[in-house]
Each structure stands twice: as structure tokens, then as C-alpha cells.
């Protein structure tokens, strides 16, 4: 009896331990692919630190939802579509926008911001950035220049 209970417990642990690995290895679910990468500005990682905020947007060439990603403190991003992790496979126009947050002058004012990336990269028809997303895992590094 005791050996049987121990085997059942071990089997359950093995199955439950394997499920997260299986879920992660099959992608994001619902047909969504994983897309991540590094954003650099003038050869340096675009780091979202202190007063800097960066966003990457992916506009489908055809029909579909826009996918977005926030740039993190190391200059990396991982794409989400709405509240779901991932992006539908297909062709996208890419937009990058980074701003510096300017603190309010007093307690009655709102903070403002100034662009640190050139304005053309925030417009899908002017950025000249495109990516083809394949099913599975994708890496797309984005290098832009302000000069």
C-alpha cells in the first residue's frame, strides 16, 4: 500500500512539474507567437530607467490587432497583444517611441514629456521598420539613430 501511494505521489509530482515546461515550450497559446528583442538608440540600449519610458508597437500590414511592448531597464522588450502574451504570426510595421518624463513644476501641475527618439519612428508609414513574425519564438532587435 505504502509503495503504491508513494508511486502515485511521484507520478503526480512529475506530471505537475512537467506541465509548466510543456505550456512554456508550446508558445503563447491561441496561435500567438513569442516576440522579443533589444532596442538601441545611437548604438546604446534604450533603457527605461528613472525618467525614461519606451514603447514598441507592431501594426499589422493587413487586418489584426496592434501589439505593444514596454522597453525595460536593460533595453529589452517582450510583445503583448491586448492582455495576452505574444503576437499573431504575420507582417508588421514597427514603431518605437521613447520619452523623458518631466516632473511637474508644482503640486498643481501635471508632468509633461519630451521625445528622445526621432518622431518618424513613432509613425508606421515613416519608420521604415518592419518585421515578419513566424510561429514559435522570434527575436527582433531594433536599432534606431537620432542623428
3D structure, described in words:
The protein is an alpha+beta fold. It has one domain: Sandwich (Immunoglobulin-like), CATH 2.60.40.1120. It has one helix at 2-25; strands at residues 34-41, 44-45, 52-60, 67-70, 76-78, 80-81, 84-85, 90-102, 112-115, 130-133, 137-139, 142-144. The strands form 3 sheets. Strands 1, 2, 5, 11 and 12 form a 5-stranded mixed β-sheet that branches. Strand 3 and strand 4 (67-70) form a beta hairpin. The protein starts with a helix and ends with a strand. This is Carboxypeptidase regulatory-like domain-containing protein. Residues 1-23 form the signal peptide. Keywords: Signal.
Q: What is this structure's SSE topology?
A:
Blueprint (H helix, E strand, L loop, with lengths): L1 H24 L8 E8 L2 E2 L6 E9 L6 E4 L5 E3 L1 E2 L2 E2 L4 E13 L9 E4 L14 E4 L3 E3 L2 E3 L3
Notable features of this structure?
alpha+beta; 5-stranded mixed sheet; Immunoglobulin-like; 147 residues; 39% strand; single chain; 5-stranded antiparallel sheet
What fraction of residues sit in β-strands? 35-45%
Q: How many β-strand stretches?
A: 12
The SSE order reads HEEEEEEEEEEEE
User: Are there runs of 5+ residues with pLDDT below 50, and where?
Assistant: 18-28
Structural class: alpha+beta
Gross morphology is globular
Helix content range: 10-25%
CATH superfamily caption: Carboxypeptidase-like, regulatory domain
Mean pLDDT over the residues: 85
Q: Which CATH class is shown?
A: Mainly Beta
Oligomer: single chain
Helix run count? 1
| Tally of domains | 1
Distance between the termini: 74 Å
> Main sheet?
5 strands, mixed
Might you state the CATH topology name? Immunoglobulin-like
Rg over CA atoms, rounded to whole Å, is 21 Å
Amino acid at each position: 500500500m505504502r509503495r503504491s501511494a508513494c508511486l502515485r505521489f511521484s507520478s503526480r509530482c512529475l506530471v505537475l512539474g512537467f506541465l509548466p515546461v510543456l505550456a512554456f515550450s508550446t508558445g503563447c497559446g491561441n496561435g500567438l507567437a513569442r516576440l522579443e528583442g533589444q532596442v538601441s538608440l545611437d548604438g546604446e540600449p534604450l533603457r527605461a530607467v528613472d525618467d525614461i519610458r519606451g514603447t514598441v508597437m507592431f501594426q499589422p500590414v493587413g487586418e489584426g490587432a496592434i501589439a505593444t511592448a514596454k522597453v525595460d531597464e536593460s533595453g529589452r522588450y517582450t510583445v503583448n497583444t491586448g492582455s495576452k502574451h505574444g503576437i499573431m504570426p504575420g507582417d508588421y510595421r514597427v514603431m518605437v517611441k521613447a520619452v523623458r518624463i518631466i516632473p511637474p513644476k508644482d503640486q498643481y501641475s501635471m508632468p509633461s514629456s519630451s521625445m528622445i527618439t526621432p518622431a518618424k519612428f513613432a509613425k508606421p508609414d515613416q519608420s521604415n521598420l518592419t518585421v515578419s513574425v513566424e510561429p514559435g519564438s522570434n527575436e527582433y532587435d531594433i536599432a534606431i539613430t537620432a542623428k
